[in-house]
């Protein structure tokens, strides 16, 4: 009887020791998994860094899993490096090609404009006008390619100073007034009379406004509505560009409109390349702002809106705005 009790006690002790051992191992594995998960998140946030995931405790099956994960991380890093090199090479090629094409194209356009249209018959004069328009369109496209390669390069920067964004937008709208009239579009600019100072680059801000007005001019059917929403409490200001569009031109995914060369359907191609919005997004972000697009139902046609938001410095004041 005593022998049986002794064996039961031994077995109980062994069972307790085994339970403690496995519970401890389970605790260590849980801790290791949490630490590994945290390490993976850090590596994901800083992917270019040559880091690997390590297991704090020895576990053959998990170590094999981490080995596969580390191999995949190495492959992803290599693809990332290759992509960056190809992207840099592409930008350099675009910049070089754009530069090489601008000079001869300017000469061609100059010669075309020197031709005396009065000496041509109606048909030839029409052909000449068409050639000039095509050459000017090509000149604009080349300029956009060059600007895209410039503003998306790693060494690009904008000058930061206090500028009056309201005045720049007001002047830009006035400069486009003749184009609005020629397209039979109603333009409604609700801009404040007072200055709106933001911390940015006047030339970059001008380029953003020009691109957005040109985009509206290209797709608007009857009207373009430009307005400003000030949010002093939130320390920001929004510039909104709204126009009506045809139902078939309504973007299915407005967020993708700022992607390079994204044109969505053929109905949105209308002589554009999509580069203007991409350039605007890059310039906006360089000045600490954000840009977004949305589309909603209107009275008879959908309404497309682009919103550009910039932070307003607390120290901004009327005398602080600089002239562009």
From TrEMBL:
EC number(s) per entry: 2.7.13.3
TM spans (from-to): 6-24
Histidine kinase domain boundaries: 96-314
GO molecular function, one term: phosphorelay sensor kinase activity
Primary location group: membrane
Catalysed reactions, as listed in the record: ATP + protein L-histidine = ADP + protein N-phospho-L-histidine
Localization per Swiss-Prot or TrEMBL: Membrane
Pfam families in UniProt: HATPase_c, HisKA
SMART domains, sorted: HATPase_c (SM00387), HisKA (SM00388)
Keyword Membrane included in the entry's annotation: yes
Matching InterPro entries: BphY/WalK/GraS-like (IPR050351), HATPase_C_sf (IPR036890), HATPase_dom (IPR003594), His_kinase_dom (IPR005467), HisK_dim/P_dom (IPR003661), HisK_dim/P_sf (IPR036097), Sig_transdc_His_kin-like_C (IPR004358)
Enzyme superclass (EC): transferase
Keywords from the named record: Kinase, Membrane, Phosphoprotein, Transferase, Transmembrane, Transmembrane helix, Two-component regulatory system
PANTHER family attached to this UniProt entry: PHOSPHATE REGULON SENSOR PROTEIN PHOR (PTHR45453:SF1)
Designated name of the protein: histidine kinase
Native source species: Marvinbryantia formatexigens DSM 14469
């Amino acid at each position: 009887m005593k022998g049986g009790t002794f064996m039961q006690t031994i077995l109980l002790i062994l069972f307790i020791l085994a339970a403690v051992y496995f519970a401890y191992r389970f605790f260590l594995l849980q801790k290791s998994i949490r630490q590994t998960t945290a390490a993976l998140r850090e590596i994901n946030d800083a992917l270019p860094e040559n880091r690997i995931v390590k297991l704090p405790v020895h576990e053959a099956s998990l170590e094999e899993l981490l080995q596969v994960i580390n191999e995949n991380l190495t492959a992803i890093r290599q693809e990332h490096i290759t992509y960056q090199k190809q992207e840099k090479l592409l930008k350099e090629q675009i910049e070089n090609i754009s530069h090489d094409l601008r000079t001869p194209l300017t000469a061609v356009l100059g010669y075309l404009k020197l031709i005396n249209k009065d000496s041509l018959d109606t048909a030839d004069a029409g052909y000449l006008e068409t050639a000039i328009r095509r050459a000017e369109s090509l000149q604009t496209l080349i300029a956009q390619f060059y600007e895209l390669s410039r503003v998306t390069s790693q060494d690009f920067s904008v000058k930061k100073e206090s500028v009056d964004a309201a005045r720049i937008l007001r002047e830009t709208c006035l400069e486009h007034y003749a184009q609005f009239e020629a397209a039979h579009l109603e333009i409604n600019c609700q801009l404040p009379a007072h200055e709106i100072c933001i911390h940015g680059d006047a030339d970059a801000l001008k380029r953003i406004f020009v691109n957005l007005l040109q985009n509206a001019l290209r797709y608007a059917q009857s009207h373009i509505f430009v307005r400003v929403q000030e949010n002093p409490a939130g320390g920001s200001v929004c510039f909104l560009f709204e126009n009506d569009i045809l139902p078939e031109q309504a973007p299915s995914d407005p967020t993708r409109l700022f992607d390079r060369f994204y044109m969505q359907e053929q109905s949105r191609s209308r002589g554009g390349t999509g580069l203007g919005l991409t350039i605007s997004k890059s310039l906006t972000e360089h000045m600490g702002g954000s840009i977004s697009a949305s589309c909603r139902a209107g009275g008879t046609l959908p309404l497309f809106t682009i919103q550009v938001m910039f932070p307003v410095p607390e120290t901004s004041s009327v005398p602080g705005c600089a002239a562009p």
